[in-house]
Amino acid sequence: MAFWEYGILFISVLAGGALAFPFRKGSQPALRLLLSFSGAYLLGITMVHLMPGAFSTGSSKPGLWIMCGFFVQLILEQLSRGVEHGHVHVHEKGRSSFAIQVMIGLSLHAFLEGLPLSHYGTFHESLHGHQHGHHHLLFGIVLHKLPAAFALVSLFLLSHIRKGWAVACLILFSAMSPLGAFSASFVTLSQDAIANLLGFVIGSFLHIATTILFEADDNHQHHVSWAKLGAIVLGVGLALASNMF
To answer: CA dist 153 to 57, 59, 150, 186, Å?
Structure first.
């Protein structure tokens, strides 16, 4: 990974969390639109880019790793309580221990997602003969980590955790995916191993994306607003358009 890739992965998540300090009140409609967009984009890049790459080696093992990633994400949500989907649970307000529990779950998830990043460029090159346009995984992580960081900091503030501690936790959370990518860069992996690791992240992405989209209906009346439908179409469209570059 290039230095700027580490930088954008860290700074974008940091910026998303920082927005919670001045804009946490009245920001839910905009956050829901961003979540709908990011969920649709995640689903699009997973189907169009990541999944074909994972199965390109001819092995069936990535399918098992996709299932593993899906269910590990399900387990991690027992800690995070869906904050990676932008949720802040009102009935848990004021509980600093709950906020720390969420922080641990999100940090583990972010670290695991970062692991294949340092090898994805070379993996993409081996499939297509060039590294151009291999940033789908990076952008997918950034787009769903940004609202997660916003929701995490909002939860810290609602839990009456001191602002200094909230900032420190945000910095730590922002560093977890870059740390995962940096740690994996010291390990030599075969193409099959990279495909399996990518499958693990695909499983996580599928869980997150489908959960976001299933919950796009806030009133649970099988109706999505035109604004959210537009955000979803834009997210899928961007994922499909990126296949042209």
So the answer is: 40, 41, 5, 32
Measured from the Cβ of residue 214, the count of other Cβ atoms closer than 10 Å reads: 9
Tell me 49's DSSP state: I
Q: Which residues contact 159 (CB under 8 A, 6 or more apart)?
A: 92, 93, 94, 95, 96, 98, 99
Rg of the chain, C-alpha, whole Å: 17
How many residues are given for the chain?
A: 245
- d(CA 42, CA 111) in angstroms, rounded, equals 18
Q: Please count the structural domains in the chain.
A: 1
> Is-contact 211 77, C-beta < 8 A?
no
144-157 per-position pLDDT tens digit: 888 888 888 887 88
Q: Tell me what the mean pLDDT of segment 174-184 comes to.
A: 93
Is there a domain that residue 45 lies in? yes
Q: What is the pLDDT of residues 59-112, one digit of tens each?
A: 778 899 999 999 998 888 877 666 666 555 544 444 667 778 788 888 888 898
The answer to the question of residue 13 being in a domain is no
Mean pLDDT of 118-144: 72
Exposure of 241 by Cβ count < 10 A (0-12 exposed, 13-18 middle, 19+ buried)? exposed
CB 32 within 8 A of CB 218: yes
Rounded Cα distance, 145 and 154, in Å: 14
Whole-number Å distance between alpha carbons of 240 and 154: 32
What does pTM read for this prediction? Answer: 0.79
Q: Which domain holds residue 192?
A: 29-244
In a domain, 12, yes or no: no
Any domain includes 59: yes
